[in-house]
Structures are given as structure tokens and as C-alpha cells.
Design a protein that fits this description.
Layout: E1 6-11, H1 15-26, E2 32-36, E3 50-53, H2 58-69, E4 74-79, H3 82-95, E5 99-101, H4 114-124, E6 131-134, E7 150-154, E8 168-170, H5 173-189, E9 193-197, E10 206-213, E11 219-231, E12 237-242, H6 247-260, E13 264-273, E14 278-285, H7 293-297, H8 302-310, E15 326-329, H9 331-340, H10 345-353, E16 357-360, H11 369-388
Parallel strand pairs: 1-2, 1-4, 2-3, 4-5, 15-16
Antiparallel strand pairs: 6-9, 7-8, 7-9, 10-11, 10-13, 11-12, 12-15, 13-14
Helix pairs in contact: 2-3
Length: about 400
């Protein structure tokens, strides 16, 4: 490897970002810089050399990276939020000379669109829910053709403004009438929605394939797992997860990554439908999601693999450990679930006491501030949830 002064730039300071920081430092990687529009848990880690606060604009990010490039020969970029994938894709020609982005700038933004993901499912014969696209106000009539309940989501997360819901569950015709004015307003603004059938079952039916695919099209590391629970409900985000899943999930995930020519860390997420025994795609995250730490804990350090790939080093043949069951627990969300979800105690006990190994997200006795700070971060997000009575996502 040619000797260069390298900075590892983690874009996003929430749980996703701190997990990247931990994974890199555990594998001997130094010089880690975190950037974000807010100062969240990763920013308080003593494993981080610098935290740089930026504005939520491509211009601000470009300026910060350009300034860094005067001190380093190479910036290895680890975006863990969709908006940073979008910004970096747009500025790729300007920063390509001094940075390494693992994702494919030619398709990463377009393929965040859930309708495009489902179109690939059809082409590649990967199971998916029945869906329709709502683009204009008159498309609301399409909702009446579904069997209730129906789940409504914006097609792309970067469409989300402060007043746009992430998920909206419509139980019946009355719900359509109730929410029609709000949905129509968003459609007029330009936000598009995917309406899909709801696959029965709780959050423990959500399974994931997560892999690092090189620019040459080679899978350099892969793992599978499943959620054990979600927050704030069964259409929320990860609260606990494990390293257990089906080989079918792995096969379907590979099919999508190869068929869509996705690079870097990507995570197709499937829900098991007991009605027909199929794992159906919910969405693909084109960057590390909240519980990607499960991969490193079970022997697949995908972000370290990105570092090795960026620095042209030999990459070991990693194999995931699925013999011992790991429970990866975001305690903050689990405690809120315990307080606010009816009859949740048996689930809570199984998560906290089950498996062969239990790991608390963010906890590191030698680096306690991110764990302690996470309680304030979660309080802020939960307060927003209570205020809106809608699902939230980060």
C-alpha cells in the first residue's frame, strides 16, 4: 500500500455513525473524523479525532471536505444517512480526486426510490408486496382498491420535510377520508408516496441481508440477521436485533445487489409473509442502517472492509458466526417499549435474557459518553413522536 495520510470521514453522528467509529478503531484504524448537522452520540466519543458541524446543504459539506483535503491525501467517506448519499453523488466529479466513496454515484440516489426498488424486484423475481405509486391528488382513488390495512410511505426519505410522516397506516375508508387533506397537500408540494399492502406479523418478522459489494461487482463481505423488536411500534425502527435469519434472505439479497449494480454497504430488508412462506422486500438501505453493528459482532466488519478496499489492501475471507445467537439491544428504545406498549413484558424478557450473548448498543466501558448521551438523544426523538403521534425515523 502506498503510504498516504488518510482521514476516515463518518457522515452522520447517530447510532449508525458511532458503530462505524467503533468498528474501525477495533480493527486498528485511526484518524477518524465525524461530520453532521447535529452533534449526536458519535461526536462525544474519545475514539474520534475531530467533530465538524456542518449545515444541512451540499455546499456546506463540499466546503468542509475541500478544507479537509488540504491536510490529507485521501478522504474515505462513510455516509450513514440518505441525504449524505445524495449530496456526495451530486458532488462526486468535484471530490473524486481526493476521496473514496464506496457507493455507486451513478445510481445511488435514483435507487433510494422504493418504486424503483420494487421494479427491480419484478425484473429479478424477488418477492415484494403489492404496491401503487401516488403522484397526484387524483391518485388517492387508488387507495380504495386495496384490502385494508394499507401502509403509506414517501418514495424517498430525502422528500421528508419536518411535517411529512414516514409511515401512515390506513385501517379503513374512514382513515382515508381523515388523512386525505394532509396527503393531498404533500402531493401538491411534490412529495410522492408508495401505498402497499401490509404483510401481517410484528417487527420480529423483519429480516436483512447486508453486504459490501466492490466496484468490480464482488461481494467482499456479507451477513444476515433479523429484528427482534422495533420502536415506536411495528412500523418503526430497530430496537433490538439478532444475527439469525434464513439463507433465502441471503440469496435474495445477493440477487438484488448484483442485479441493481449496487456498490459499497447495502441492506435489502425483507418481511416474512406466513401466508405464502415468502420473504418480501420492504426496502433497501443504500448505506449502513441503525443495527449494522450486528455484522461486526458476528464477524463481518463491512466498514473495515471498505477501508481495506479503499487502501488497496488484501481483504480476508470473512465468515459470519451464526452458531451463537447474539441479541443486539438498543436499551433506550426497549425501555420506552416496555413502558408504552401493552403486554410487552414477555418480549422484553426474551430479548434481555435470551440468546447466547447480549450486547447493549453504544455501551463501551472505556468510552461511556456516547451511551450516556444517547438517553438525551432518544428523549428528544421520543418527545417528537409523542407530539406528532406519527412514526419517526432517523
Amino acid at each position: 500500500m502506498e503510504h498516504k495520510k488518510i482521514a476516515n470521514v463518518v457522515l452522520g453522528s447517530y447510532v449508525n455513525g458511532y458503530s462505524i467509529v467503533r468498528e474501525l478503531t477495533e480493527n486498528g484504524v485511526s484518524e477518524i473524523i465525524v461530520m453532521d448537522v447535529v452533534k449526536d452520540v458519535a461526536a462525544f466519543s474519545k475514539k474520534v479525532n475531530h467533530f465538524i458541524k456542518i449545515q444541512n446543504t451540499a455546499k456546506s459539506l463540499r466546503s468542509a471536505l475541500s478544507t479537509l483535503s488540504t491536510s490529507y491525501d485521501l478522504l474515505i467517506l462513510y455516509p450513514n444517512q440518505d441525504i449524505y448519499v445524495e449530496y456526495l453523488s451530486d458532488m462526486y466529479p468535484e471530490i473524486a480526486g481526493y476521496s473514496f466513496m464506496a457507493f455507486n454515484p451513478e445510481n445511488a440516489v435514483a435507487y433510494q426510490d422504493k418504486m424503483k426498488q420494487y421494479q427491480f424486484c419484478k425484473e429479478l423475481q424477488v418477492p415484494h408486496p403489492e404496491v401503487v405509486l401516488l403522484q397526484e391528488e387524483q391518485d388517492l382513488d387508488l387507495l380504495h382498491s386495496f384490502q385494508f390495512p394499507v401502509l403509506l410511505k414517501p418514495t424517498m426519505r430525502d422528500n421528508l420535510r419536518a411535517d411529512v410522516f414516514r409511515n401512515l397506516k390506513l385501517e379503513n375508508e374512514a382513515d382515508i377520508a381523515k388523512h386525505a387533506p394532509d396527503i393531498s397537500a404533500h402531493l401538491r408540494f411534490g412529495t410522492q408516496f408508495v401505498a402497499s399492502e401490509i404483510i401481517p406479523g410484528d417487527g420480529s418478522n423483519i429480516n436483512s441481508y447486508t453486504a459490501y459489494r466492490s466496484r468490480d461487482g464482488e461481494i467482499l463481505g456479507e451477513w444476515i440477521g433479523k429484528k427482534l423488536s422495533q420502536f415506536p411500534n411495528d412500523f418503526g425502527v430497530f430496537a433490538s436485533a439478532s444475527n439469525q435469519s434464513s439463507h433465502t434472505v441471503l440469496e435474495q439479497g445477493r440477487t438484488l445487489l448484483h442485479g441493481m449494480d449496487l456498490w459499497g454497504v447495502n441492506q435489502p430488508e425483507f418481511k416474512y409473509d406466513y401466508r405464502d412462506g415468502k420473504y418480501k422486500l420492504m426496502e433497501i438501505n443504500l448505506r449502513p442502517m441503525m443495527w449494522h453493528r450486528v455484522g461486526a459482532l458476528s464477524g463481518i466488519p463491512l466498514n473495515y472492509i471498505q477501508y481495506l478496499d479503499a487502501t488497496n489492501q488484501q481483504i480476508p475471507e470473512y465468515m459470519q458466526d451464526r452458531e451463537s445467537e447474539i441479541h443486539y439491544i438498543y436499551l433506550n428504545y426497549e425501555l420506552i417499549n416496555l413502558i408504552y406498549r401493552r403486554n410487552y413484558l414477555p418480549i422484553f424478557k426474551d430479548i434481555m435474557l435470551g440468546g447466547d450473548r447480549r450486547v447493549l448498543a453504544l455501551w463501551d466501558r472505556n468510552d461511556p459518553l456516547p451511551f450516556l448521551g444517547s438517553f438525551l438523544s432518544v428523549f428528544r426523538r421520543f418527545r417528537h413522536y409523542l407530539r406528532t403521534q406519527m412514526d419517526i425515523s432517523y
